[in-house]
Amino acid sequence: MTTPNNPPVVVDIHTHMYPPFYIHLLQSRTTIPSSVPLLSSPPSPDHLPGRPLTKSYTSLPAKISFMNTHNITTSVLSLANPWLDFLPPSTAGQTSLQINADFQSMCSSSQANNRLYFFACLPLSAPLPTILDTITYLTTLPHCRGVIMGTSGLGSGLDDTNLLPVLKQLAEDNLPIFLHPHYGLPNEVFGERATKGEYGHVLPLALGFPMETTIAVTRMFLAGVFDAVPELKMILAHSGGTLPFLAGRIESCLRHDGYLFKKDREEGKGRRGIWEVLKSQIYLDAVVYSEVGLKAAIEASGEGGVERLMFGTDHPFFPPLEEGEEQWGSVTVNKEAVDKALGEGSKEAELVMGGNAVRVLRLYEE
Q1: What CA–CA distance (Å, rounded) separates 175 from 7?
Q2: pTM higher than 0.70
Q3: Residue 64: inside a domain
Q4: Does residue 39 lie within any of the structural domains?
Q5: Which residues does residue 234 pair with via DSSP β-bridges, in sequence order?
Q6: Residue 36 lies in a domain
Q7: Domain interval for residue 182
Q8: pLDDT single digits (tens) 214-244
Q9: How far apart are CA 211 and CA 190, in angstroms?
Q10: In this predicted structure, what is the pLDDT of residue 1?
């Protein structure tokens, strides 16, 4: 492949699809996670809940049409939650192979026209040798550029020591992790009115998702995961949740914690600061929906922080609600934030909109 020349490359690193085998898997289930046809009327009381499978989730032509509408050069596809976390150990490995093969097939098809790559899914409920074998397999897929992972890891969070062999293998094979939240915060955190549906999905999506990411990555930091796997690269969804804003507070609390201070001194541990980790191992997507948030994410990433952010759309979530509307506000608002923060057409804006993704994810390499 060769890098497109003009206009400047626009790369969407945060865009989801359900490939054929995953659709079949969800449709065959009778419990959540499952899928349902798109409904034209309210469901009956005995209707099985599940995610409606619209063309935006399942159709490759629909994805390409969306890209064309919004002048997106290249997309890096990934499975939407709940990934494969729900699968029994006996089937997770084979299911992962099939779904990743489906992604590779879509990306290499004539319809894709050399415009697609993907983040693979791992069978994290499977035995460790199966997970490691899967990572090795991913290195043989020409369009795979990393893996997508939720915050539960093998089931106990990303600070679980049992996950370290997986993280080390990913780092060794130069496969970044695109970290995406799923579970959010417990529903009771948001109060009785929210649990009754009065506030829609605003609280779990706007606050629960970002806080989930923040907590997961902070647990990794406190556990010394980034020091144990210094070559690991992570791309955090939604601009890292609240990490850009809270990193200083996390650092201060760590410095003033008597237990950790004593423990680190006794062990002779030279713990790196969270700012250093943010500047060396963590990248952020630019799905933050505001100039203020984008500037904070850039500042948190240190000198040259503009080189650590990558544009995303979160398609097919947050679709237009007005009938006949073609432009997705979730796309245009994020692009406007880049333009306002960095200057429309500037070199810095071009890096965030596509140049950084090309470099970090090795796009267009043969």
Answers
A1: 28
A2: yes
A3: yes
A4: no
A5: 177, 282
A6: no
A7: 11-30+49-360
A8: 999 999 999 999 999 999 999 999 999 999 9
A9: 13
A10: 37
